[in-house]
Amino acid sequence: MEDVLPSGLLEICLLVGVPRERVRALLQGTQRKPKSLPPLDPEVLSVFVPPFISRDDIQVINAGNNSNKSKRRSFRKKKERPKIENVKSLNGEQKATDTEDITVPVDIDLIGLPQLCFPGGLYVTSESKEDHIHFLVFTDVCGNRTYGVVAQYYQPMQDGCISLNGQAHWDSAQTGKMPVCFVPFAICVISRYPYFNAIKDCLSCLLVQLRPLKDLDVEEHIKEFAAKLFLIPSPPPGPLHLVFNMKPLQIIIPSREDPDSPIIDLDLHLPLLCFKPEQVLQIMTCILTEQRIVFFSSDWALLTLIAECFMLYLHPLQWQHTFVPLLSRQMLDFVMAPTSFLMGCHIDHFEEVSTETEDLILINIDNGDITHSKMAEEELEIPDVPAQAAETFIKRVESLQLHYDLELCHLRASTDLGELQMRRRAWQQKLNTEVQQMTLQLIVNIFREVKDHLNYEHRVFNSEEFLKTRATGDQPFYKKVLESYMFHSFLKARLNRKMDAFARLELSTQSEEDGLNLMFHTPRRLTMEKMASKRFNPQYLISRRMVISMPNLQDIKLPEGPARNSSLRRIETSVAVKMPSKSVSTFKIPEIHFPLMFQCVHSYYTDFFNHLSKAINTLPPDNSALLARYFYLRGLISLMQGKLLNALSDFQNLDKTDLRIFPTDLVRKIVETMPPSERLQADRKPELKKLISRVMEKQREVMKIDDHVKNFELPKTHMQLDDFVKRIQESGIVKDIDTIHRLFDALTVGHQKQIDPETFRDFYNYWKETEAEAQEVNLPPTVIEHLDKNECVYKLSSSVKTNYGVGKIALTQKRLFLLTEGGRPGYVQIAAFRDIEDVKSTTVAFLLLRIPTLRIKTLSKKEVFEANLKTECDLWYLIVKEMWAGKKMADDHKDPQYIQQALTNVLLMDAVVGALQSSKTIYAASKLSYFDRMKNEVPMMVPKTTSETLKHKINPSAGETFPQAIDVLLYTPGHLDPSERPGNAHPKLWCALNEGKVVVFDASSWSIQQHCFKMGRSKLTCMIMVEQSHVWIGSQDSIIYIINTHSMSCNKQLNDHRSDVTDIIVEKKNGIPSEAYSSSLDGTVIAWNISTLKVNRVFQLPCQNLTSIKLHNDQLWCCTGSCILVVSTHEFQLQMKIEHHLKDVCSYFLCFQLFPERDEVWASYSGSSDLYIWNTKDFSSTPQKIHLQDCSEITCMIRVKNQMWVGSSGRSQGKSKGKIYVISAEKKTVEKELVGHADTVKALCSAEDRYVLSGSGKEEGKIAIWKAE
Hints:
It is found in: Cytoplasm. By secondary structure, this protein is an alpha+beta fold. The protein is built from 33 helices and 53 strands. It is flat, with a radius of gyration of 37 Å. Residues 58-100, 164-176 and 538-576 have low confidence and may be disordered.
């Protein structure tokens, strides 16, 4: 079972030095003074390995033998496997041996370690020196790191004996006696965790305690110290630090912020004291470009601390190569390694290293210099960090308060050591947080736009295109970084949509443009706002829209594409992006008096368990983050005590408090090593049985994550349709499969149905060249002022003669205008697409020639625009007609995505014409005229009622290859919490798609707030806002997922259902949520305490197929296939029942709604187009029936004010369609029939009773927003 236990603070402890008889022999044999002695070879004198109390000790004590003699666990270093025999104490006496086999952790190298404990050599001195501490980092072959903290101290020696209290037992001046000398020893604590400050403090306390001790007591004391550290657990990630007493100091063990974050227990600002901000950036560039780097310092401790700080600055990017931040003088040849590395040496070896080895980056910590060693061939160029990101970083560094003394000026002097320590620690913690945020912001600013060049479906990164979009001065940096292993791992995490620190900050600082780009997948072009800003700064600005209330959609003018609030992308330099600081609690670990005695260890665990239980019982249930940490720690303590079932129960509580820290591997190991009797007991408890099966299933499910990353390459072979689709999607040009099919038809006109690599290359290059040229378009301010800030110029004609003058015709997503030529370029409006009345392609006579001419007639002008476009005329004719048709569709259907699709179509037409260069190019391009063809073939008139009621449409599947069905919709109103970012105050629209996906829209602007996160892999069935900060989501996998609306993450889940969760409702008392009810398909209803998430009551209905529940007046209405049951909420006693009354035995109840004010219940049956209304006071009477025209089945219904909105499925001309019927509750008549979806209406929800939102099936996959009267 000991293999199962997680590591404590200490992995192993060693005493390193030289045996005293060697020093004595040297001094006597050579009659030398200590100063003239050569450096001695240090060796491991003793090793202290846990467990310090073995199972045998426990059995002896349990048998009544109260001996507190513990087994000595120290041995001498050998070249082979260390054995326990021949162990010598500090003075060299032979110790009693013990036959117990002691194992050292496999990854600890006892042979190389002594050199690292004395990296500058071990010298016997004639006078005492100050104690000295330094730090080590070890990396195993798998890349796992362990950490060492080494404390060197000096002990006086005379005749080979250590003096007491540093005083000799006899007068050293006696004749014939050797002078007193001082021998250094080192205590090395090795831990799995980088608790540099904590272990340094512990060792500092130990050194104080060792001073008065006699030689023979030192080892016992170190062993006791090691045993004590072994008993200290590492805290779980989150807002709880552990504190324990190590006289005279209080030691704090900090937790990591979240499971993906590193542990930070050092002073993160140290590099900022040693280097200027520009040099810090230079060093970060060296690490990002994976150079061979050597740090130098006269202080051994600084080498490791500075190197570790730089590793933390780059988080979540991780250094993948050799990392040895401290080399002893015997290890200097390590710097000859040919691969990338980061190492550290003493400053004394600077000349030797710099002259002996080529191509090294040499960083002098002491004076802040960064130099190169001699070069093999060309000078090594260290590229600059991208300019704008660097500027932001430097300004933030300059704004930091890095000197603690300045902080102390206004404070009273502290007279208490503990207070002094806590004050300094609080200052350091605050500064560490600021440095972390600042460096993370730097990484986000450098790599933010990588996501724009990723294809998630095929796991492709288009590095070439990414590089082209970088500023010229930034390209050398990106070229080098893109080749690194660090960047490759970073790409894998992006393609896996990992929600790490980078993703969270990127999301929280994304502009509205970023969100809208996700919705529309628009071809990249400069907006007018960007173009204007380009004159002053080529980079971009982070900006966020701060809106609280839901917009008045009836007042919104339909955006002609992404209605970007701010499209500037210059990174803000004056204002730092600051995250709210999180409050952290501390938990005092009970005293451990005699860690080598079983009774004391046993009582320590008992006290620890009791303290945790008390904390759990006194903590309010809404503080679930802290509760989770207490449960986790109590589970660990139960595990240490061998109480496996108690441990499992506490770990199970993490489901309802904080899932993220659930120790899956640990629980699996517990289950695998559990004795059969205990396993039987666990299986008798349903909740533990489910926990065990879940953990063991998860292990079986662990499939290898596909984490390959492909760089985009042009195809080298002929492509059939399927391969062509994949290649175009990989290229990032377009994702929609139907559009790619039309493009395939266009490129294969007159050929067999396959595309050769040359055609693909010509098309791709033309598309990218056009994109690049459009980025270079620079309109004068006089033209920009006529255009909207979010408009982009997508195409310019060559210079042509028109009846408005000579100039170039420009196309934006809203209009055509003429960029006139001459002395000063000017702007002449040709037509807004919505104003076009007619477009014609004709010819006009000029001398003997007929010149192709484009004519555009508009509603607002009598004069017809004419342009002699010559060879371009046919293409412009197709382009204008497609944009006109797309604009009409967008206006009619209130769906701005149509104009984006039309834009994509015309740009594809342009690229087809540019690539093919044949007589059939215009015919080929016409294959892409999708909207124009639709307008001519099927005139799509939107009924007046639909047009007036429909306000807007959005597509949650934008950017996907296929539309996805919308299973559930939920609107949550905005609220302003002072501790949160303003963006969190916005109202949100939650949309559940297939396989557990949830997309969240910011309902104040309809930009995607969090593009997509997953709740399991099954279909989601229901969503409800239970409290202001929590949304509960039910799934077919029988789990209720609880989303924190601030962090937008799922940290809790409820696992008590045994079947598909079908519905969740909330009971409110005086407007405050008091209890939640959830139902599952097997007929179970569970009542939940919302704050504690404990089950209040469970009820099993007498029938299965429970599909939905409603609540009114302490009565629960339950809809099953065969009947609607009414039960009381407290005793769950059956009170009423509505029987299935249709003759068709195959039909069943599908959905229902209550109208309590009218004493009515409305319901529908499967396969029926009729609505049935019962009077709740008399179920025996025949229900009233409302027949819905043109409807196959009623799929969902929602009550809005005094109306019932009913979603349906139907067929029209052989295709699915979805109608919404608005029925007056009073008149029982259909007031409106709304034709808004090209597939079944699957979900309805209300937004503040002002709007109704409807979602459709997978053929269309869109959300319509309707005005509620």
